[in-house]
Amino acid sequence: MSVRELAVLGTASQVPTRHRNHNGYLLRWDREVILFDPGEGTQRQMLLAGIAASDLTRICVTHFHGDHCLGLPGVIQRLSLDRVAHPVDAHFPAGNGEYFARLRHASSFYETAEIRERPVLADGQTFETSAGRLEARRLRHPVETYGYRLVEPDDRRMLPDRLAAYGIHGPAVGELARTGHLDLPGRRVLLTEVSAPRPGQRFAFVMDTGLCDAVFALAERADLLVIESTFLTEDAALAAEVGHLTAAQAGRVAAESGVRRLVLTHFSQRYGPAPRRKPVTGGPVADTGPAAGAGSATAVPSASAAASLSAASLSTGATSAASLSTVATSAAERFAAEAREHFDGELVVAEDLIRVSVPARPVSAVATPPAASAP
């Protein structure tokens, strides 16, 4: 069974807080496991999330500000410590490649892992992966920065009733899928007669940037968009000055780009702490995707729920619990509400150590192929 989900390891921006680690996002997409922007403390967050370094197949760095890359030394050294047998590709802005070299060899260690450097040389460069095409687009930030998009190729799904009508089964199904046709006694059956289109899924990752065309290009028709929303609208002028987005802008991008599920992250510490769940000993990292966590503090599945965060999900610490809850709830509500000014799809205001699933493909109406003629 395929697994397609995002594990959120950290959600802070420049400064980590008591409740938010520096950035870190891990995407599981079938056999491809991609670590995006490992900030300081990522190796420990992976441990808390139950993720092994040996799972990684690829690392993508958007840019070399510390909150997006200072976790690289620990992760890279852990790959060698664990003697990971398969190669791990690393993508990063080529113009700042010297930073990757320094971080890769930040201290002495016995290197056994194979790290294959695949720098991004230009806007629009693509890389082929087992999950599809990985695209990099240049963003607008004071240093060279790229966002990433994973695009699964379109395919077709077989229609069992049509296959049965033609008496096609077993190895013949594979042959039909490979060649596009199958010769039966008295006629040729085309793949289009016994299958329907299956659009590929898309994942987009947009970090530090001002609003620009590349942001919309990356987000276009994304099933899951992870996007920075460092500031609220009250600080929009500052956001534009330093090359960041507001929650409202992130919501606008999602709405205009046809995004299905939106994840807001990379929050400025100025807006207060994140809501905290009560710890669950020995349990898996919680899934706050709308299907599993519609009542959680940060999963906001509809516009009507944008202002109704669950107080039960906040921690109940002994010190100033009421005031902490008020501040935490208010901050999450404000980010959600501003995004909701534009976007009415599935929305998650990210917290550290949550999982967000890639939405299942929508069941769309497909024209019924012609009925099979009797043999």
Portion of residues in beta strands equals: 15-25%
How many domains? The number is 2
Low-pLDDT windows of residues:
278-298, 301-325
Helix count from the secondary structure assignment: 10
What top-tier CATH class of the largest domain fits best?
Alpha Beta
Give the end-to-end Cα distance, rounded to a whole number of Å.
36 Å
Q: Determine the CATH superfamily of the largest domain.
A: Ribonuclease Z/Hydroxyacylglutathione hydrolase-like
Q: Helicity, in percent? A: 10-25%
Strand order of the largest sheet: 6-5-4-3-2-1-20-17
Biggest β-sheet description: 8 strands, mixed
> In the CATH scheme, what's the topology name of the largest domain?
Metallo-beta-lactamase, Chain A
Calculate the mean pLDDT score and round it: 86
What is the H/E string? EEEHEHEHEEEEEHHEEEEHEHHEEHEHEE
Structural class: alpha/beta
Strand segment tally: 20
Folded structure, characterized:
By secondary structure, the protein is an alpha/beta fold. The protein has two domains: 4-154 and 199-357, Ribonuclease Z/Hydroxyacylglutathione hydrolase-like (Metallo-beta-lactamase, Chain A), CATH 3.60.15.10; 155-198, no CATH class. The chain contains ten helices and 20 strands. The strands form four sheets. Strands 6-5-4-3-2-1-20-17 form an eight-stranded mixed β-sheet. Strand 8 (132-138) and strand 9 form a beta hairpin. Helix 8 (247-257) packs parallel to helix 10. It is globular, with a radius of gyration of 23 Å.
List keywords for this structure.
375 residues, alpha/beta, Metallo-beta-lactamase, Chain A, 8-stranded mixed β-sheet, 10 helices, 20 strands, 23% strand, globular
